[in-house]
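Replying to the earlier thread about multi-chain prediction with a worked example.

Input:
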Amino acid sequence: MFRTALRNVLAHKARLLMTVLAVMLGVAFVSGTLIFNDTLSDGYRDQTAKSYAHVDVEVRPYGQSDKVPGISRKELNEIARLDRVAGAAGRVGGIAGVADKDGGLIGGGTSGTGANFAPGKDGKDPLYVFTKGSGPTHPRQVALDKDTAEKGGYDVGDTVRVAFRGPAKTYELSGIFTTDDTWVALGDSLALFDTPVAQRLFLQPGYYEYVTVTAAPGTSSTELAATLRKVLPDDTDVKTGRQLADERAEGGASDALMLSTILLAFAGVALFVSVFLIANTFTMLAAQRTRELALLRAVGASRRQVTRSVLIEAMAVGIVGAAGGLGVGAAMAAVARSTVGVFGAKNPDGPLVVTATTVLVAAAVGVLVTMLAAWLPARRAAKIPPVAAIGSAHLPATTRSLLVRNLLGGIMVLLGAAVVVAGAGAGGSLGKALVGLGAVLVVTGVLVLIPLLSRPVIALVQPLLRRGFGVSGKLAGQNAVRSPRRTGATASALAIGLTLVSALTVLATTVGQSTDRMTTDIVKADYMVTDSGAGLDTSAAAALRKAPGVTTVSEEQQSWMQLDGIQEDVSAVTPADFDKAIRLPVVSGSQGTLAKGQVAVAEDEARAHGWKVGDTLPAVYGDSDKSRKLTVGAVFESNEVVLPVVVSADVIDPNATSTTSSKAYLKTDGSTHEKALADALAGRPGIKIDDRQAIREEFSGAFGTVLNVLYALLAISLLIAVLGVVNTLAMSVFERQREVGMLRAVGLDRRGVTRMIQLESVVISLFGAAVGMAVGTFLGWAVCEIVKADIPGYALVLPWDRFGLFLLLAALVGLLAAMWPARSAARLNMLTAIKTE
Amino acid sequence: MTTSPPAPRTPTIAARATELSKVYGQGDTRVVALDRVSVGFGQSQFTAIMGPSGSGKSTLMHCVAGLDSFSSGSVRVGDVELGALTDRQLTKLRRDKVGFIFQAFNLLPTLTALENITLPMDLAGRTPDKEWLDSVIQMVGLSGRLTHRPAQLSGGQQQRVAVARALASQPEIVFGDEPTGNLDSRAGSEVLGFLRDSVRTLGQTVVMVTHDPVAAAYADRVVFLADGRIVDEMYEPTADAVRELMKSSDAPGFRTS
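Result:
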């Protein structure tokens, strides 16, 4: 039996190719993700281990206050004098964006850091190796990491502009260094300053954020840490370099892990879709070999032996697919590592890591999925009666009753739909669970029902086909419904893909457009100014006020406070300016109360904590320990523009020491334009000026980006769908050779044959797409209903343009899939096709 | 060539092959399927092509019907020379001027009997001549079964549909490739009767390949092939006469004529 099975695999190489490809794609995604993940984790571990190689112990106090912002010089010296300590370097750092020669921030400005250069007795800082020049030892000097210097085109002696909180300052480049610092390795820029300069910039003169301690010869870092812990006060963290490296590696890897989770989800989708393709292929193979299998039965093979032989074939296919998939997966991981950084950062170098687990998982997934998918067809094959071997060649295919299947599917769909609707109505976490459960039922039910659906749905387009394409169209339509089971299985792959795509699209468009509407309503300002680096300082706001045509500058500071014991993010504003720039979507109370020192809270929070207009709540602002009473003056609809709590800046801090704000809204008299504003802010790298259109995109654009990423990944399911359609069509063409030959003989030309196959393919594809879109829209609606409480200005939006695009895409998929089968059908040798055995 | 009486009349030629050769392969594997065959098929005549397996009888029919290409010589259907035609032109010729009846698998399973009958005209985008169609359907006795699908028809009924299809478009010539090969003798004689009637009453031209002497006896003329050549012919054949000739075909003399 085993040998027969293997012979069969070899005999049907071409037919099984598509199946192998599908398994391969699924396995490639799974193994690629695992390899990518392992490689990245290892890379991070190596990288962080290297970055802490020169640090034996790190001492970091916590619970800083204004009075004691860190470790003082005195304390540093005390540590340095301790036994077993060879050296101690005080360190301080913060945000520092390095500008290139055109004034833009290198690396986009979100990842620029600054630190102090802390040379030891030998004049060297073990963390940094200078390749050119030397460390900054003068207040006007700066040193840059090699990458950053290269990107900026800087050389020793050049003048470099560095942006902090506040206006940028210029320094002279004293040296260029390399470092094992993790963040630099991942693409951050690093600027080093003389210690007093860094202290002034990032903390307070005379203070350090933390201290790196080098152990005296013969002392292990663990011993050193133990010694330090005994001596230092309780509110000090003492950790060995090893501990820190492990902590940080975990943090870095968890970002990669999040990406992996998403990728694995798509691997799941790919495999799920593959199941249909595989099942379909084996069903067809069994049908094609009816006589052969019947002969086996007739000469004495038991049902179980037949089943087993089909399963062995599936296993062989699975093994080949898994092996190929593992290879492709490794290649994918290699490409992914070098091209897609995690959130814009570079990925650490290192060899690709293929663990035994990965190999095992790939093999298990590939083989199990294939065998599982082939199980039903195998059982069906075993049911072929031995008498079929001697039956007539033209025995009409017995259409097995689909009654049970349809009944089951119908019940599942109805039940599922009811559960989804109930869930959508219920909302909350119960609603989510119900919608989830219902969605599974509906999708499964529709997949079960798809053969039944194929006839009436395709019948709808039948007249269109007949009128538009004549006999070719008519035949195509009829061929498409000839084997409902096969059509259904073929369409399923597309249906699943499009269910996901359209559900996501409905959700994203609804959320996006609602947010967009809300934003447009709320923001009255003409421009929004943000700083991608450190935030806007007072001088920037002052410059904007002086810019031509600007009538109002409303600054917003983002902070946090304890309101009624709940930690809340706060937008602190100047009410007089704020009123001109922003119109809060007030539900109760009024925005005017902000000027009276009252607080405005978002509806969500108000509802969650039972706050009403007129309530007086205890509030503790930021780090201070002073508590005061705030009255709720307004409740507004939650939105993306302001944080959940809005309050006047003076209320929080009457003697405002803060000199920076997160963003500023500008109202103009219409005479100004972006260029004038940019000129007014010249010399501040990293500043971004958004006009109204850009503001809208800023607040609602994220949904579009997320959607595009999802589309790219879901393209995989489309690819598998194409393989499925190719497979079915090739099989159909093979089965209908004589028909095609006869048609050619009585006068259908090659173009007609090609068109017939193409149309059949397009019809099946469109059918799958339509089913998927219908289900997807329904589920998308349900999810929208669930989350509508969180969506400001909710109104369901059906993205018809996208739907049209999907249909077009599905038609293209159909055409693409038909290319090869149609060609081979058109080239069919009429005479061999007609000839009887 | 003395086994039959001379041709009773010299009809107009509906299709003619002249010096027709068909060669497969090259060198050692070279097979000559047709060796400079010249034959004409008279209008309103029922011609049977006979010969042992591998004699080239089917190949001859396929070449004359525009189903297959040939190596040298010429084939004319009506006044059209086939050798010069492209695939599309050949397709059009088959659709408009030729009717086919195959041994099996003549019908599309998804179409009804009537749809199958009008298929060549649907392909050409022509409206069938209603009166003619009715008379053809009447003749083959399918009036009650027009909405049936092939699977609901018996083998004989299926072949009658095939005959009706071949006749319905009023082609210049109808070719049959063992049209009764899959039928029992009763159903076979019905189909052959229809073909003969179409020649007698409708003036149709029919060329049929067969290996069955009984079937050949329905024809006006039988052409015998062996080893790719025409070796004999017979007018007004009877089954016995054909059988006699076939028996002698094993004799060496048969091949040398």
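Chain A is about 60% helix and 15% strand.

Feel free to reuse this layout for your own posts.
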